[in-house]
Amino acid sequence: MTKGTPSMGLKHHVLHIRCRRCGRTSYRVDKHYCSACGYGKTSKLKKYSWQTHTLQRNRRF
Ligand SMILES: [Zn+2]
Fold it and tell me: What pTM value is reported for the model?
């Protein structure tokens, strides 16, 4: 396997889709939970004090 531009054509699998709760493209299709806010895993919003990006609820775009 080569790295760089020729191998980029193989990257067609979808791992994350847009999350319904936080709006980030962090919702795991196979595991059915969001890696950013924990949607599908916990009813509360997954949040850490050290995180740099704030999660916005019900963000539509
Ligand atoms: Zn989320």
Answer: 0.69
